[in-house]
Design goal:
alpha+beta, two-stranded antiparallel ribbon, 108 residues, 4 strands
């Protein structure tokens, strides 16, 4: 059965507990089931923007961290466990344009 890159438990990625977690934007997008080239579902767009992608319009991702330290123990002495859940908020957009000045160049 295809789980969309996830294992049989529905997990997209397991982290090495001896290292800090690193979550590239690409991983967050994959966890939310979206890609930058997909068409935005933002409503009330002008005719010229109706085929705009998430790359054009932006999106809002909600990242939730579920933390537990009691699994299998009455006194909470086990190693803590946690999981990330990523959800895209439908029909929302976010766009920030910030000029960055570097080496006499202006980059957006």
């Amino acid at each position: 059965m295809d789980h969309g890159g996830r294992d049989d438990k529905g997990v997209l990625k397991w982290f090495d507990t001896s290292k800090p977690d690193r979550l590239p934007v690409e991983t967050l997008l994959e966890a939310a089931g979206v890609a930058m080239h997909m068409r935005s579902d933002r409503v009330n767009l002008k005719e010229s923007a109706r085929n705009a992608t998430f790359r054009d319009r932006g999106m809002v991702l909600l990242v939730t961290i579920e933390y537990e330290n009691y699994q299998g123990s009455w006194f909470g002495t086990n190693e803590p466990t946690y999981s990330y859940r990523v959800t895209r908020i439908p029909e929302a957009e976010s766009k920030i344009i910030e000029p960055v000045f570097s080496c006499e160049q202006r980059v957006l």
